[in-house]
Amino acid sequence: MKNKDVKSGVSLFGQSEEFMLENDPMEEFFALNLGDFISEHLISEDLAKKIGSNVKDKKEGLINQLKELISIYSLKNTLCVLNFDTKDDYAIYTSIAHSIKQMLEIENCNIYFSYEYAKAVDNEGHDLVLVGSSVENLKHKGYNLDENSIISVAFNEQYTISKDNVTAVSMHCNTRNVGIIALESKKEIPSEYINLVESMATLLATSMTLQEQIDYSTKLMDDKTAHVSDLQHIRAELTALIADLCDYQQNFVVQLAHAVDAKGGYTVSHSQNTADLARQICRAMGLNEKTTDLIYYAGLLQNIGKITLPEKIFATNGKLSAEDFKKIQNHSNIGVNLLMNINFLSEVVPYINYQKERVDGSGEPEGLKGQSIPLGSRIIAVADAFCAMTSDRPYRKAMPKEKALSIMKEESGKKWDVDVVNALAEVEK
Fold first, then answer.
1. pTM
2. How many other CB atoms are found less than 10 A from the CB of residue 46?
3. Model pLDDT, residue 103
């Protein structure tokens, strides 16, 4: 962590300098998870004495850092699929299983944890315990690891296996096994959906592993005999897991977008292209990185509601039934509701919700005008329209970029934000 960043208030703990340890020579290495090694092997005798004379303050600083990390990255903030108000583990993972079944349009989804993670469920002597199912009152309760089953093999080998209409997806974080997500389907499950479930499994496993470390950190902070080196070590562990979690969250968003495109009849690159272009527009407009990232995610997930719709709707060449048409029209609302329950994505909801608004007030859902429309929504609207115009569709060929840009300039101030279209023109020079 560079000094100039510290001075500007940037740290691993948010936008505050409060939790940086003043004059702490280990902070530079903290970001690289090397604090323990440095403290144990590379400090000078004079520095060791200085640190030793100020152990109390250093401990307090480390404890404050840990508290800040814990407050931000608790399990309720990292659980990737739904936001739950119940402590009943079975209810939580049954909800997740139902969500997976609906998204993938499969017969059933079962979730198994190793017995040490199935805290609220009677394991009945099983190594792998059923903690959630899309089937009500499923009598089967689990597996033992010595059984020759696809579930046991996938768990032991830590990879995805498909056999006899069952696909078993391993839930693991690094070398730690958490459980299995089992998908039951009579038809082959598209690779985009498998990738989505794999990313979800990794994200859940990482969240649970992180929560374990948080629980241990809490106990350590209450231990008056805990050494500074112990606190440094757990800080490094938490930091590493948080970094992994951020990476896995990003991958989950990408895989979710690919699954949406696959179901919605787009080329798999449409959402990605829209998001990439939106990010370029953001940078051309000088927006900060956090806002740019949120708008990028919103671009990826602009059609998220389609993930809950049956594929047959998108495969229909003729006129849709009134019921199916209503479902299509309502997919944005479905998407908003889904994203509201994905904790780390909830901030993108306004951008997606108002992406069909137009600056002259002719859009929907609320007929907002001009600056009343969130900037992220205005950027996504432009990026989406431009990508749609310049891509091949079943009913037409792609439009030349010059023509598409000319059309958007003509309609700027009516449909599209003038500043956003100007930024698009700069990007497309």
1. 0.70
2. 8
3. 82
How confident is residue 156, by pLDDT bands cut at 50, 70 and 90? Answer: very high
Q: How far apart are CA 292 and CA 279, in angstroms?
A: 6
Strand order from edge to edge, sheet including 108-114: 142-143, 128-133, 108-114, 176-184, 166-173, 161-163
Instruction: Give how far the C-alpha of residue 85 lies from the chain's centroid of Cα atoms, to the nearest Å.
Output: 20
Query: Contact, 111 vs 133, CB < 8 A?
Result: yes
Between CA 400 and CA 428 the distance in angstroms is: 12
Confidence class for position 308, pLDDT limits 50, 70, 90: low
Distance CA 358, CA 145 (A): 57
Q: Name all domains of the chain by residue range, CATH numbers in brackets.
A: 86-189 (3.30.450.40), 265-427 (1.10.3210.10)
What are the tens digits of pLDDT across the range 241-254? 878 887 888 888 88
Q: If you average pLDDT over each of 70-84, 136-150, 270-284, which comes out highest?
A: 270-284
Mean predicted confidence (pLDDT) in 367-391? 94
- If you search the block for the tokens 């569709």, which residue do you land on? 393
CB atoms within 10 A of CB 315: 8
Q: Which pair of structure tokens corresponds to residue 267?
A: 């080329």
Mean pLDDT of the chain: 76
Torsions phi, psi for 360 (to 5 deg) = -90, 5
